[in-house]
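WARN  no MSA supplied for this record, continuing single-sequence
INFO  ligand: inosinic acid
INFO  echoing inputs
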Amino acid sequence: MPTTAILGLQWGDEGKGKLVDSLCARHDLCVRFQGGGNAGHTVYPEGRKIVLHHLPTGVLHRQCVNVMGQGMVIDPDRLLDEIAEVEARGFALKGRLVISDRAAVTTPMHLSLDGIRESGSGKVGTTKRGIGPTYADRYDRIGVRMVDLLDRTSLKEALERAVAVRACQMGKQAPSVDSMLEPLLQAGEKLKPYIADAALLLAEGLREQRRVLFEGAQGAMLDVGQGTYPFVTSSHTLSTGIPAGCGLVTPLQDVIGVTKAYCTRVGDGPFPTELNDATGELLRTKGGEFGATTGRPRRCGWIDLFALRYVCRISGITRLAITKLDVLSGMETVRVGVGYKDHNEPGLPADIRRFSALRPKYEALPGWSEDISGVRDLAGLPANAQALLRVIEQQVGVPVGIVSVGPGRDAWFTVAG
Ligand code: IMP
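INFO  complex generated
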């Protein structure tokens, strides 16, 4: 069964979109299994930018069938906007998009709840797309699911259940069931052709030896279980999220972990190798580090190889994809985090205060001045850029399989293992 997963290894925004886009050309199915409108996968089909939030990137490849698994949280109106945009660009979705009937629905109430939470003391700097409250309702068994959008009685009951529980938290801000019912039913009517038992379709595809690509959103350090809790998203972003988020178990042949040649983070929470100086500013400007979903400036710093080693181990990564190597061109010295002062354990601390206290130890490597955006093989890179890749491999313990050297759709190459 030819199965590939592509997952972020940092705090999201690793540049997965472009690589997924390239890999989709060689796959029959593209599957999203977690997250929702908080994702922002930027791709340039036919040279024009498009940012996908809910839709799998395979929608931009006409041979690809796209699956939105039951582990996703879906804002129906925003999804309809995305579908309209993609179809207006000439990518018809009829027969090519399947939305799990069991996926969770983000309602206006969840958007309000996210805003309320973020205005209080427990703020984590979310994208305010209602992600946390939607997952919370799912696990509290008061959620609305895609299947509910297809039946007035079911939807009304589901909304009544949720509002009854959340009203005490929201007070006057609690929306009425009536204000949500009709718009959600209308959205359901439009989404009806796509809503189905996605797990079954996927199981069929795998049985027929279809080539399946699992497309991760966010990054490993934002995983709700293994990430920098509570400064995480609310889903399982590691490969461990794939079976639960799709509703079936399948072996993965190739698990590609994507990391920038440096590191970024949006939102609050610890970031040991963050640079609050001119170098951080340079990375932000040169790398265009502003959020695809919220436009927020991203926090920037050096690559953290210790954290990468940790997440590769627990996520079963088989090869690394290093993105934005070109952004480091022109730096006299490039630093890589190889551990932390006074931290002698093999793992990362679960306790957020201990994590926040980590102080990185760096290895300094000589940089390069050449423009590498036109390079298309390893040998074409300057010797110091090749040396950096070797250090990454050695420290992380996983081979580099892909290198991306610019924003263009073809600005990357594979490295033979
Ligand atoms: P939420 O997923 O909107 O609840 O946000 C929780 C945390 O995850 C915040 O720090 C967000 O900035 C971060 N986050 C969520 N989605 C993404 C993403 O696609 N890229 C980068 N950070 C993200």
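The longest strand covers residues 333-340.
INFO  checksum written, moving to next record
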